[in-house]
Amino acid sequence: MRQNHFLSPTLRDVPSDAEVTSHQLMLRAGLIRQTASGVYSFLPLGFRALKKVENIVRQEMDLADAQEVLMPAIQPAELWQESGRWEAYGPELMRFNDRHNREFAMGPTHEEVITTLVRDDVKSYKKLPMTLYQIQTKFRDERRPRFGVLRSREFIMKDAYSFDTNQEGLDISYDKMYEAYTNVFTRCGLDFRAVVADSGAMGGKDTHEFMVLSSIGEDTIAYSDTSNYAANIEIAPVVAHYEKSDEALLGLEKFATPDLKTIDELEASLSISKEKLIKAVLFIVDNKPVLALVRGDHDVNDVKIKHFYNAQVVELASHEQTVQYMRCEPGFIGPIQVSTDVDVLADIAVQTVVNGVCGANEKDMHFKNVNPERDFSVQKFVDLRFIKEGDLSPDGQGTIRFAEGIEVGHVFKLGTRYSEAMGAQFLDENGKTQPMIMGCYGIGVTRTVAAVIEQHHDEKGIVWPKSVAPFDLHLIAVNMKDSEQKELSEQLYKKLMKAGYDILFDDRAERAGVKFTDADLIGLPVRITVGKKASEGIVEVKVRKTGEIIEVQVDQLNSTLAELLSKLA
Prior knowledge:
With 569 residues, the chain is of the alpha+beta class. It folds into 3 domains: 17-236 and 402-453, BirA Bifunctional Protein, domain 2 (2-Layer Sandwich), CATH 3.30.930; 253-382, YbaK/aminoacyl-tRNA synthetase-associated domain (YbaK protein, Alpha-Beta Complex), CATH 3.90.960.10; 471-567, Anticodon-binding domain (Rossmann fold).
């Protein structure tokens, strides 16, 4: 591709609204341009990288016996209502009415559509197992689009869906997709971890997220410092052992705490350890008020509340809801003398608090010498808090450490969540009707491109892994007005294309410094410079990743390139 008429507008300055490296470099290197908040156009360089990732995904999906389909982006509301997700999915679902006032959504995912397709056309166990996938544009109305294409409102995703006759078959399908995902992200040159995760609005139980390690990751990974255990912090169980003090129980007292609303304020003012404080947080769980209690040095994990109740929606109570159910404003609520309309759920650590402090459900008032079970009752003591660094690893090996990660893939065992709701059934070998057992597997293709850049860059620009680079080679003619340089560059361009290389040929009438700066910014694996030694048949070859520069005779260029590229990941 000749760069003179190639749409690759590079920028010298870092865009002010780009917060992270991948966003900055994708804009500066001319890979993307913003059309609206969270909506981007991919320019030729970005599109080529996108296609490289898509090709890797397709190859691994095909090796896993998945069949490619293409489903509509526009989905009728009836399908989502049938599955029960029309309301449960939340405001991220982009909804609209057509001219006949029929309700539709722009698809963020395709469980409903694929279940309908298979339900209508697969009736016998003889056609199962079956895995179908697509690579398609998705839409989610993110509250706060940020980080460029890492969190956008329109994005490209590969989603796959498996259909099996039993749980054992689902396990096999799941393992095949897990292996395929491992291959995809390895081939993309990413440092990643597969972590145990929460299925969220998707439904299902067994699930893993594929997380690219990055300091700007929006998810926290809890991992063992001595074993392979890794999980999203939202789902990691706590297996800590708590010691209960043998101090004498004191009498319950109410005391004034004017304007002391937070744990930190109480700790400082009362000179009391956070371990003695009981933090109370009110949630609305599927329209039911639930008061969650944790120790003051811990934080409530709402995902664990959701799992305990097998709930669809868990939200923090509003100020008005807190006053309604607790008869008190936030900051002073607690578990003593709570209305029977409110469930009280407590973390296991709360059970060992002796002579603690909690809110009195009265403005500017708290109780001291609070003892669980003597002074208040709870529905159940369960694991309710977020795991912390230094906690024992849930697998019993080592202690927990944290790392940040960017989610690029997610695999779910859905079971019969959608097939039962939507009537996707098959006749087994005995002629009996059974629900299909489903799995769901997604890869964020646009996210993967950005994640690659987050991990592969330096102070000069992008450093593309060979597998996903927009082009293999960057051919630069230092001076196109020099007849010998121009002639040799044209010869090499044609020769290398015939040899099967993808080449970006910088034939622009620009200064050498501009060309080299752009080349480093774009970051293709190997740069070939045709300069002053063109008359001698010598070119300069530079490896972007290592900075290695060698002079090569033109007749040895093919063998040199083959050797250099074979060493690059």
